[in-house]
Specification:
alpha/beta, seven-stranded parallel beta sheet, four-stranded antiparallel beta sheet, 468 residues
Length: 468
Amino acid sequence: MSYLKILTATALFAANAMALSAQTEEAGNSFVHQHEANGYIAPDDPAVLRKLDEWKDLKFGVLFHWGLYSVPGICESWQICSEDWITRPAGYTYESYKKWYWDLSKMFNPYKFDPEQWADIMQDAGMKYMVFTTKHHDGFCMFDSKYTDFTTAKATPFANNPKSDVARYVFDAFREKDFWIGCYFSKPDWHSQWFWNDYYGCAGRGRNYKLDTDEHRQWWENYRTFCKNQLTELTENYGRFDILWLDGGWVKAEDVYLEEVLQKARSGKHPGLISVDRAMKTKWENYQTPERSIPDVQLNYPWESCITLSHAWGWDPSAKFKSPAKVVGILSEICAKGGCLLLGVGPTPEGLIQPEVEQVLRPVGAWLRKNGKAIYNTRTTPVYTNDEKSVWFTAAKDGKTLYAIVPQNDGTAMPATVSWKGNAPKGKMTWIENGKTVKYTTVGDVTTVTLPKDANGKNGVALQFTVR
C-alpha cells in the first residue's frame, strides 16, 4: 500500500470523523450512552462503595485513545465495521479496506514514545486519574498478550523496542505521579476469529455468526475464554488498577466472565476495584458514562462525562481543540451536576502529547492550582446554577461552604456582575485565587455579585462564601 494511498485515506476519514463528531455534538443531550437515574444499580461491596466515594473527590481525569488508528490519524476502529453509517474511501472494497487497516500494524512505530511526558503534562493540567485503551474494538493490543500476536510487542516495527509492552510503561509512568489508574478494555474484538470469523461476512458490530451449531457454540466459548484470559493477564500482570473501564455494550458482562474476573481481582491485587461496564445498567456498571455531552440536570449517583478535547478521541492531524476556558467551563458544570470529567486525548503516532494539547491543558492546570478547592473534594448543592447557567455551584463536604464558579466564555469579556436566586451568602465572600473580598448584595432571594475588574483572561472566577 503506497504512502499516497495512506494520506488519501487519512484526509477522507479525517473529514468524515469531523462530520460524525459534529452530528453527535449537535444532537445535544440525546448523547451517546445517556443514562436515566433509575437505571443505576449501586454496588453492595463496601470496599467498592468506599472507592467510589474517593473517586468522586478526583473530578478530573484523562482518557487516552492510542492504537493503529493513530498511525494515519483516523477515527478509532469504526472504519472496519460494516454498518451503513460508515463511509470508506472510493476504490476500496470492504475486504481491501480491512486489510489496509490491519496492515497499519506494520507501520506502528512510536519511536519517540515518552509516557513520562504524558504523565507530566496531565499532572500539570490538574488531572487526578487516567484511563488507557489497552485494546479497542479493532482487537489491536497495546499490551503484550500471550493470547494473540496482534500486539505492539509482536506485530509492529516497535516490537524490538524496550518499551514495546506499551501499556505497562504508560501505567507505571502515571503511578509514579500518584494517579488513579484505569484500564480500558473492549469486550468486542473484531480481529479475533472467534468473534468475526472469516467464513462469514461482517454485517455489523456484533458476533458475525449465530449459535446454531455445536461448532459455532464452541467458537463463542473460545471467545469468552479468550476475553477472560486477557482480562486476567491485565489484572494480574500490570500492577494495581483502580478502575476497569469496559467498552462495547453489545457484548454482555457474562459473555466475558466479568463476575469471575472481578471477584478474583478484588480479592487479590485490586481491592475495591471500580467496574465500569458501560451502558449496561447492571451491577457491574459502578458509575455511568454519558459520552461527548453533559446531562441536563444534576444527578446524585456516580457518573462521569467522557468528552474529547478536540472532535476526535484519537490523534487527528486536522484537530481543532477546545480552549482552556471551555475546559474549565465544562469541568465546572459537570462538578456542579455531580459528575467527573474524563477528557479524551490522543497521543501522536510518534508517541508524544502534541504541543497544541499541552497549550490547552497547562493553563487549565494553572487555573486549578489557584481555584481547585471549588472543584476537588466537592459535592453537590441543591441550587447548582442560576437561570442563565452562567454560574455553577459546588459545595464543601461540610455543606455550609459553597463555591460559585463563573467560567469565561470564548471570545467574550467577563460580565461586570452575576446574579442568582437562593444560595444566599452570609458574611464575607472571597475570590479564591487571591483571597480578596468580593462585593455583593442580597435583595429578597436574589444575590448580585460584582466581579473583580481584573477577572478577564483568567479562564473563570471562583468565589467562596458561607450560606445562611
